[in-house]
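Q: What structure does this chain adopt?
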Amino acid sequence: MKLLLVTLIVLCISIGCSSYNILVFLPIPVWSHYVQVEPILTALAERGHNLTVYSPWTPKKEVPNFHHTFLTASKLKEMFDLFFASEFLAVLSHKLAAPIISSTSHGYSESTLQIAGALNAFAHLPAKFSNYVPPMTFVQRLDNALRNAAFMIHNKYWYYPSIDKVLAKHVPGPLPSVSSMLKNVSLHFFTGNVAVDGSKLLPPNIVELSAHIKAPLQLPKDVQDVMDRAGNGVVYVAFGSLIKASQFKKENIELLLSVFKNLDRTVLWKADFNLTDVILPKNVIVKNWFDQVSILAHPNCVLFFTHGGISSMIEAINFAVPVIGMPFFADQAHNLAYAEQYGYGLTIKYTNLTHDSLLWSMKTVLQDPKYKKNIKRGSRIIRDSPMSGVDTAIYWIEYVIRHEGAHHLKPVTLQMPWYQELLLDVTVIFVTIFSVFMYILLKIFTFLVFCYRKLRNKSINEKKKTV
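A:
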């Protein structure tokens, strides 16, 4: 899990800022995750903070105070002012007695919301790996509640206890339970934006960021010439850093190429398959790498065929490029479900991929101006912010340090049992009182009916005697 980007320094936090030691532990070897945090780390170092960074990725440029290293056990014993890492490394924060900031690369998740004290968020937020979008139907809300309940039970009674056993075996000294250490996370950064997946009711210890969007660079001359000369526009195709086109079935690669051939557009495809195995249409250019931001920022980019990862969606919306989405796993279907709801584009399933369905989808988004109009609206929303993503992240990182962990930001729900947070105890009392009240009313009504019938029968019997 990781963090985010954007550039500029806000004056009020630039003046008189102290220098701090910050440990950054980002071990997951996924470039699309690391790219979300790299600009923030660079900006922190440029502001004079001393960063020790553990990650599989070396910095693009040398920056004073930016120390990239693979940490050893002895190095971990050094004292740091802040420990910035995944929340599941909170044990190191406990050992180092330093506050911790976690960053989630795919936005909110059920586990992080629970750790942050927002357990009841599932009432309005769909499970991340579902394709639900608000407002959810009753059946969807029921399924959403069951998913979250199952996740909570799994963590509480199996996952966290299993981690506690591993820690007790390998980490010297007594430790609190991992569930209690996770509550010590000072702040949670979520990659996301209201323009991507809507507004959310989040506590103040959660900050949503879209900070990785950099200024577009000058494209290589051959690519720049292609972009500039594309009178009908360019369709950009990329499926992220994890999904390799070389892993596609050959017939699906040929299917995609046949669709691209029928588009009256130039197609740039970031792919790694062997070009000698296929016949490329004249309008298709395939390379192992394109600068995605610079391609999307070009005014001639008219469509983005994407897997729907959160970083790619933020970039597409920021530069107002309509999308065709083909999700594969994780949060991709979730992101693309919102994109369809907001009118940014259309989604097609890889398992149901056909020539006609993909061609129809691409031509529909290219020819219907509503998709461009809708994503332009999203672009205005994502760009209209009082502070850049990098500046927002730096402000909150320094805020946590200045306030020695900023634990005052945490909601009181972190100290409440789950049944209190969900008002189940209050609901039980209300239901009990209502049930007792209704029971008493029923008894009174039954008694009155009984008395009425008794008096009525008595009256009838007296009349019979007089006769």
